Amino acid sequence: MLSPVWIVGFSGHRKVPDREGAARELEMLFQRLAERIKAAGGTPALCTSPAAGADLLALTAAEKAGFSIHLVLPLPVDEFRHDFEDTAEWSIASEWIAKATMDAEGSTIRTPSAILPRPECYYESGLDIVSASDVLVVYWDGEPANGLGGTSDVVDLAKSQGKPVLRVDTRAQPHGAESVSPLTGLPESWPEPDPVIERLNHLIREEHVSATANAGEIQNLFDSIADRRAPQFRRGVARAIWIHALAALIGAVPSLFYFAIVPKSAAPSKESLEKWGKLAQAFTAVELVLVLAALVVTLLLYWGKTQQRWLMTRFAAELVRGLRAARPWLNPLNPQVDRHLPGWRRFAITVSLRACPDALPGESLDKKKQHYLKWRISHQAEHYREKSESAEHAHHRWHTLAKWAAILAPFAVTFALADKMFELELTKSWWGAFCGKFLPVALPLTAASATAMRNALDLTRRATRYPEMVQRLAASELALESAKTELSASQVISRTEEILLDELIEWNLAASNAGAH
Questions:
Q1: Domain containing 15 — which CATH number?
Q2: Which of 182, 198, 337, 462 is most open to solvent, judged by the fewest CB atoms within 10 Å of its CB?
Q3: How confident is the model at residue 222 (pLDDT cuts 50, 70, 90)?
Q4: 309 and 436 share a domain?
């Protein structure tokens, strides 16, 4: 099952008068937060800087409480070390940095690619911590910051984003359980269930899967569900469209037999009219059966939530695919999907952190680039190429059928209108009835049904959009191959993932409009 990750941010003063008391109070606070998160079925994580003072105490306290650790450095490591007055504290900080750099036990680290001047760099790292966090814990005296990027500024950032702030008062005496119980400032309902993860876990339970260990298994699971649901839905929609079309045609068929059954006389006999009436009733009964059958097909799709399950699992699988590929490059705590579909943020974070075994820490730039080119760009380009070719052929067939049916329909309807106005002798034959009574129904219906099939199968969009995606990915491939630094490569990958995410969202919207809601 998916255990949603809940991120606790931390910021605190470098000077800690009572280190033992502060450590004890932080341990109790993080323990209580961990209990709340785990009771809700979640996984606790800490996001902070390994700065001197309270930050290092928070790291130790959080680790004891079972938190995974995620570090945000305000400066590159070689520059950051100059901000430590105590060599012992730098030794502790460097151990945390080394552990996070190797992705040990799910830890991560974000190191700036460029050196910002002090104190701006501390303000930016504080902003990163707050943006990634669900709740902020601060070791703070309540006073304004001495400089930009201090704890007071971080608190203001959290409040501006509407995030709860839990304060450990540096002046509280004595340090003990009463000062942190209850968790003042934290809603009683926190953390609330995540709707996306709840729905996905429901699907996982339906598949009788007990556990999903890593991002690769999660992707394979959702791929398998989507691969089954997609054809079920498309076949169901196609059946409903053509059953409705057949029902309408059946309703028009009796007119073809009228003059074969009813003699061409001024006063048709009662027997011949009754005979034709019984035939018309039979065809109408068949039409009713077909309409009911189409309704049953549609209701089965609706009750079975086939479309919703297909869309959700396919979206989840493709999102995981991108998160796994971009894991060494992009910030797992600040996923791109959050800017487009905030409801998927926690799922993306949870999966990104489970993708640690798929990351490539310590490998050369060229190796990481080749990994992304092979498993992301090339794979996606081939997918779009294959889908566009098949969609283009199918689109051409349905488009041709719809076009010619639409072109011929006005002639058939004009003929039918002329018959109604002038009672043409030509229509008093089987062939005339076919042209004047059946085709005016069949041709518009065929045009509409072919267009509906083209839309239901998303053929027009795929035939035009996917070749464009192949070209854009080819441009990304060239840009990534020419990138010479980690920063330039990560910028290319960020743009590429944005392109692919836009297409995924566009596909989701198009597929959602296919019907059977």
A1: 3.40.50.450
A2: 182
A3: very high
A4: yes
Measured distance between the N- and C-terminal CA atoms of the chain, rounded to whole angstroms: 27
Backbone phi, psi, residue 137, to 5°: -105, 135
Residues 115 and 229 in one domain: no
Q: Are residues 130 and 9 in the same domain?
A: yes
205 inside domain: no
Contact 193, 40 (CB under 8 A): yes
pLDDT in tens, 380-410: 999 999 999 888 888 889 889 999 999 988 9
Does residue 131 sit within a domain?
A: yes
Answer yes or no: is 9 within a domain: yes
Between CA 238 and CA 246, with CA 244 as vertex, the angle to 5 degrees is 100
Higher-pLDDT residue of 14, 272: 14
pTM equals 0.83
Q: Is residue 336 in a domain?
A: yes
What is the total count of domains within the chain?
Answer: 2
Give the tens place of pLDDT for each residue, 423-454: 666 656 667 777 777 888 888 888 988 888 88
List C-alpha distances in Å: 340 to 158, 318, 512.
21, 15, 17
Residue 168 β-bridge partners: 139
What is the span of the domain harbouring residue 494? 217-512
What confidence score (pLDDT) does residue 57 get?
A: 95
More confident position, 190 or 208: 190
In angstroms, what CA-CA distances link 214 with 154, 327, 501?
A: 33, 13, 22
Instruction: Please tell me what DSSP assigns to residue 117.
Output: P
Same domain membership, residue 257 and residue 146: no
The whole-angstrom separation of Cα 86 and Cα 105 is 27
Query: Residue 8: helix, strand or coil by DSSP?
Result: strand
Q: List the structure tokens of 206.
A: 């339906």
